[in-house]
Design brief:
SIR2/SIRT2 'Small Domain'; binds nicotinamide-adenine-dinucleotide; Rossmann fold; 3-stranded antiparallel sheet; 2 domains; 9 strands; 6-stranded parallel sheet
Amino acid sequence: MIRLRDFERIVFFTGAGLSAESGIPTYRGQGGIWHEYNYEEYACQRAFDRDPDKVWDFHDLRRQKIGACDPNEGHAIIAEVQREIAGTRIVTQNIDGLHQRAGSREVVELHGSIWRVRCTRTGEIVEDFEVPIASRRSPAGGWWRPDIVWFEDSLDHDTIAAAQDAIAGCDLLISIGTSGVVFPAAQLPRIALQSGATLVEINPEETVVSSWYQHHLRGPASQMLTDLWR
Ligand code: NAD
């Protein structure tokens, strides 16, 4: 039986499944946005270059939907663990900001955040929580674009390095609610495997990377985290 209190350097590696209980659909699950919207029209740089207003209309809608959701018990437990066990780090593929709203800090956001925008002219990045966004044009004369990793974008180099650093130094890695098919994020937990850490997968379903993990907790994130912590 794994108990979180037996570890000192925990990494929570989280994906869309963690936020499913908050009402945000997973990527591939039922209700997932990419069943409804073609990413080539709404979530890639080419689409933004072609028609930024159309892409912003879509992202304003996403901000509105995500903003109406609250962190769930799973996010709350992770924040509590981080407060009590100082060496706890969070690496997420989610863009929803729910870890931070639950009280977590220094979250490594591999795929960016829906709550930040980046100037297409200067590269300046600012937080922006307004829905809809107050101005789509930046003061520098460019556009603000959502600071998220769209399809065909590369991940930010420093962000990957921060994730690798956290994972290489952990004694326990807990993967939660990720299908393990979105690369390069999906392969990061292998670093913990190679360095001899204990690996736990929380997911109601088996995944293509389940064999990396010594322990499998097959159930919803909030319940499985409660069992590990309380
Ligand atoms: P994914 O949709 O590919 O996989 C989700 C996984 O969560 C599945 O394996 C599923 O079995 C599992 N799951 C479903 N309900 C769960 C629950 N209650 N508890 C635990 N696990 C549960 O998600 P992914 O691997 O994170 O990749 C999707 C990509 O799309 C990510 O890169 C992410 O940036 C983006 N995305 C983000 C959000 C968000 O920010 N909340 C939502 C959808 C997609």
